[in-house]
Design a protein that fits this description.
Strand order of the largest sheet: 6-5-4-3-2-1-7-8-9
Structural class: alpha/beta
Number of domains: 1
Order of helices and strands: HHHEHEHEHEEEHEHEEH
Number of helices: 9
Radius of gyration: 16 Å
Strand content: 5-15%
Largest sheet: 9 strands, parallel
Number of strands: 9
Helix content: 25-40%
CATH class: Alpha Beta
Length: 245
C-alpha cells in the first residue's frame, strides 16, 4: 500500500519540476509490459523486515565510508544507482539496488548477475533506458504514480530517498544512511556523462525534504552518518560497530 499522503507529495513534484504525468504513466506501462514475471515482495521483506538496514548513496562522503561498510557484510545494504559501481569495485555486494537506469550499466548488470535485487524506476524521461530491465534476473518495477500490475509505489523521488522509502515500507527496525549527503556537491559516482548540475542539486534538495516528511511518519529508528537531516539522528561512522552489535 502506498504511504498515506504520498499522492500530495507526488503532485508537488510534478508541479515543481514541470513533469508530465501522462509520460510518467506511459513509462510505467512500458516497464510493466517489459517485465515478464511478477517479483515476489516477500523476497524484499525477508531482507528488510525488523532488520538494521544500511542505505548507501553516491554522495561525496561515500569514499571515506567504504572502510566502515566492509565490516558489515551480513547486513542488508540498499544501494542507490551510482553507488553500485564503487561498492562492487571494493568487493562489497549490494543486496538491493534502486535505479532509474542512468548509472553505469556495466556495474548494474554485474550487481544483478551476483543476485542483487534490482528496483527499476519508471519515469517520464527514462523510457528509452527501460529495456535494460529485461537483463536483470531479480527485478521489480516502481513508479511515483499508482501501483498496478507488476509495478509498485513505495514512495520517494530520487534513487537515494527511494531507498529509504523502500526500507521503511518493508519494516526495517533501523535505517542508517551512508554517503547520503544532500549537500551542494555532487558525488563523482552520482551521475555519469554530462548533466545539469543545478537541476541535480534541486532534486537532491527535494529528496531531503521528502525524507524529513517520511521521518514524521516512520516507525523505524532513523540515522544519518553525513549531513544533518531533520528527524534523523546523527551518527559517526566510527561508532557504527558499537551501535549495531
Amino acid at each position: 500500500m502506498t504511504l498515506n499522503g504520498w499522492q500530495k507529495k507526488y503532485q508537488e513534484i510534478l508541479n515543481e519540476f514541470g513533469y508530465d504525468r501522462t509520460k510518467e504513466i506511459r513509462s510505467a506501462n512500458i516497464l510493466n509490459s517489459l517485465l515478464k514475471t511478477r517479483f515476489e515482495l516477500s523476497n524484499l521483506e525477508r531482507k528488510i523486515k525488523n532488520k538494521i538496514v544500511f542505505v548507501v548513496g553516491a554522495g561525496p562522503s561515500l569514499g571515506l565510508s567504504l572502510q566502515y561498510i566492509k565490516k558489515f557484510r551480513n547486513f542488508t545494504k540498499i544501494v542507490a544507482d551510482g553507488a553500485t559501481q564503487v561498492l562492487l569495485e571494493n568487493k562489497i555486494m549490494p543486496d538491493i539496488v534502486v535505479t532509474d537506469l542512468d548509472g553505469n550499466m556495466e556495474y548494474l548488470k554485474k550487481a544483478s548477475d551476483q543476485k542483487s535485487i534490482m528496483i527499476v524506476h519508471a519515469h517520464g524521461d527514462n523510457i528509452n533506458r527501460l529495456p535494460h530491465a529485461i537483463s536483470f534476473k531479480y527485478c521489480l518495477g516502481t513508479t511515483e504514480d499508482k501501483s498496478f500490475g507488476k509495478i509498485r509505489n513505495f514512495g520517494g523521488f530520487t534513487d537515494g530517498d527511494r531507498c529509504v522509502f523502500l526500507a521503511n515500507h518493508f519494516g526495517a527496525s533501523k535505517i542508517i544512511l551512508i554517503g547520503m549527503d544532500f549537500g551542494t556537491h555532487v558525488g563523482k559516482y552520482s551521475k555519469t556523462g554530462t548533466y545539469d548540475k543545478s537541476l541535480k542539486l534541486k532534486k537532491l534538495r527535494k529528496g531531503k525534504l521528502l525524507l524529513e516528511w517520511l521521518a514524521t511518519k516512520s516507525n523505524a529508528e532513523l540515522y544519518t552518518t553525513s549531513k544533518p537531516i531533520r528527524g534523523f539522528k546523527n551518527m559517526r561512522l566510527a561508532d557504527l560497530q558499537r551501535f549495531v552489535r
